[in-house]
Amino acid sequence: MEINAQLVKELRERTGAGMMDCKKALEQTNGDMDKAIEKLREMGLASARKKSIRVANEGKIVSYIHAGGKIGVMVELNCETDFVANTDEFIQLAKDIAMHIAATNPLYVDKESVPQEIIEKEKSFQKEQLLKSGKPENVLDKILDGKINKYLEDICVLDQPFVKNEMVKVKDLINNAIAKFGENIILRRFVRFKLGEE
C-alpha cells in the first residue's frame, strides 16, 4: 500500500510524532492507522526507557490559571538542556499538563509516589465492599487488583487520559515529547490551588 502525505499528516496530528516516524510506522503497518499509533507508542516507550536514566535538571516551572482566577496550577517539567526547555513545544507541553491538572485534580504524579498506607487503606475499603456484595472468594483478589489499579489511575496524573484527547494518557504525551526531542523529560511535581480550599 502506498503511504500518501495526507495519511502521514493525519497520524502526525493524532500523535505529535515526527513525520519520518509516522511514515515508517504507516509503512510497517500497511497504512493501518490504529496499528501505526500503537507502533509509534512502542517506539516512543522504547526510546523513553533508554532516556529515562539520563539526568534531567533543566526545564520550566509553568503556571496555569483557570475558571476566572479560581483554580491555579504550577508544574515543574524537567528536561536535559535549556535549549529544549526554551522551545515553544516544551513550554506548551508543560502548559497542557498544568491545564489537565486544573481540570482533573490528581493527587500524585505517578503510582510510585502514592504512599503505601493510602494504597492499603483503599484496598481495605474495596475488599470490604466486595465482601458485602457477595462476590465469591476465588475471584476477590483479581477484582481487587483491578479496582486498585483503576483507583491509582484516577489519582495519578501520568496515568490519566489527557483531557484534550482521551485516547492518550498524560505519560504518552511526555513519551512522545521524549521521542521527538531526544531528551529525558520528567514531570517532577505540581501543586493545584482552588480558591477557598484548605
TrEMBL record:
Family annotation (Gene3D superfamilies): 1.10.286.20, DNA helicase RuvA subunit, C-terminal domain, Elongation factor Ts, dimerisation domain
Function (record text): Associates with the EF-Tu.GDP complex and induces the exchange of GDP to GTP. It remains bound to the aminoacyl-tRNA.EF-Tu.GTP complex up to the GTP hydrolysis stage on the ribosome.
Record localization: Cytoplasm
Organism: Desulfurella amilsii
Domain Translation elongation factor EFTs/EF1B dimerisation stretches: 30-197
Keyword Ion transport: no
Predominant location: cytoplasm
The family this protein is said to belong to: Belongs to the EF-Ts family.
Keywords, comma-separated and alphabetical: Cytoplasm, Elongation factor, Protein biosynthesis
One GO cellular component term: cytoplasm
Pfam families reported for this sequence: EF_TS
GO molecular function: translation elongation factor activity
Involved in Mg(2+) ion dislocation from EF-Tu as annotated region, ranges: 81-84
InterPro entries named in the record: EF-Ts_dimer_sf, Transl_elong_EFTs/EF1B, Transl_elong_EFTs/EF1B_dimer, Transl_elong_Ts_CS, UBA-like_sf
Coiled coil: none
Record's protein name: Elongation factor Ts
